[in-house]
Design brief:
- The protein has helices spanning about 15-20, 125-130, 275-285, and strands at about 20-25, 25-30, 35-40, 50-60, 70-75, 80-85, 90-95, 100, 105-110, 115-120, 130-140, 150-155, 160-165, 170-175, 175, 180, 190-195, 200-205, 210-220, 220-225, 225-230, 235, 240-245, 250-255, 265, 270, 310-315.
- With about 325 residues, the chain is mainly beta.
- The longest helix has 12 residues, at about 275-285.
């Protein structure tokens, strides 16, 4: 993928007309402490590459003595990645990890066969207040890695490749793009970048990855003559190079990768290629068989009783 300016596709070309395959407007959920917009999974599309869950958190303003308190809860057979634009979250997990998640850093948690974690506002920030804004994603793991040992990896913002060329700025979170490679080693072919475009500038997106999408954060972009404002997920047509133009200063997440080798099932915080594995995880959590989180042992989120059956999730490939 390159970053040099290039002309828009010619009017009438297939890339121009069909560049955006699916448009998803995420549903907003008021959690009391902040609003969350969930773009994936959607009825229109459940996965893009390995990405099976895509949430925008905030922006939210926390005053004195306020903050988030996501109590310890379990995950299996997936990896999570929390990426912040503003604010800070204190991550703790059952491996003994305690890590302050800060803007621009990579925080990759591979659940594998099972992990428990909590996300809270630290005592210092709770005292002083803060603004919180970011993206939380889950990525499905390849079937042969679903039961690997859990792990947590952190790369500070300074460790990630940054591009700043002719009105295009980008931080590469995962994968290869812009002539750079992220230090994050993911379980499968993955692309993830935080991209900024100055007003009037353009950026080509090459078809290097089979499945690609944009999630708009701020400003307005134009693709193939159509304009898109903040908080929209654009699943791009596979196989075609496209051009994104900023009508004013804009920011978006570029993400995708290789499709999973089959469907996944999702229920609460569990993702797996096997429905029976989710049923086993439900029983394990209900019976207290997961490890606890050091420093956060006294609290947990009980197993929900009214979610229903696991839902089948697929990406852009048809799975019989």
């Amino acid at each position: 993928m390159s970053w040099s300016p290039c002309p828009d596709p010619k009017l009438g070309s297939r890339a121009d007309v069909d560049a955006v395959d699916i448009l998803i407007v995420p549903r907003a959920v008021d959690l009391g402490e902040m609003t969350v917009r969930r773009a994936l999974p959607s009825t229109k599309r459940q996965m893009v590459g390995p990405f099976i869950f895509f949430d925008q958190m905030g922006p939210a303003e926390f005053l004195t003595d306020q903050g988030i308190d996501v109590r310890p809860h379990p995950h299996i057979n997936l990896a999570t990645l929390t990426y912040l634009f503003e604010g800070e979250i204190l991550h703790r997990d059952s491996l003994g990890t305690e890590q302050a998640i800060q803007p621009g850093a990579v925080n990759w948690m591979r659940a594998g066969r099972g992990i428990v974690h909590s996300e809270r506002t630290s005592a210092t920030l709770r005292r002083d207040g803060q603004r919180l804004f970011g993206i939380q994603t889950w990525m499905a793991l390849p079937e042969d890695q679903e039961e690997d040992d859990p792990a947590f990896l952190h790369h500070g913002a300074e460790a990630l490749p940054n591009v700043d060329v002719d009105g295009v700025t980008a931080r590469l979170i995962a994968g290869r793009a812009f002539g750079e490679t992220s230090p994050l080693v993911t379980a499968s072919e993955t692309l993830y970048a935080d991209v900024g475009l100055a007003a009037g500038r353009t950026m080509p997106i090459d078809p290097d990855y089979e499945e690609r999408a944009l999630y708009t954060i701020s400003g307005e972009i134009e693709i193939g003559g159509d304009r898109f404002g903040p908080a929209q997920l654009l699943v791009l047509r596979p196989g075609d190079p496209i051009t994104v133009r900023a009508t004013n200063d804009a920011r978006f997440m570029l993400f995708g990768g290789a499709p999973m080798g089959g469907p996944r099932y999702i229920w609460w915080n569990f993702v797996s290629s096997r429905r029976e594995r989710i049923e086993a995880a439900k029983e394990e959590w209900a019976r207290g068989r997961f490890d606890t989180v050091p420093g956060d042992e006294a609290d947990f989120i009980p197993l929900p009783q009214s979610i229903g059956k696991p839902k089948r999730a697929t990406g852009g490939v048809f799975y019989p």
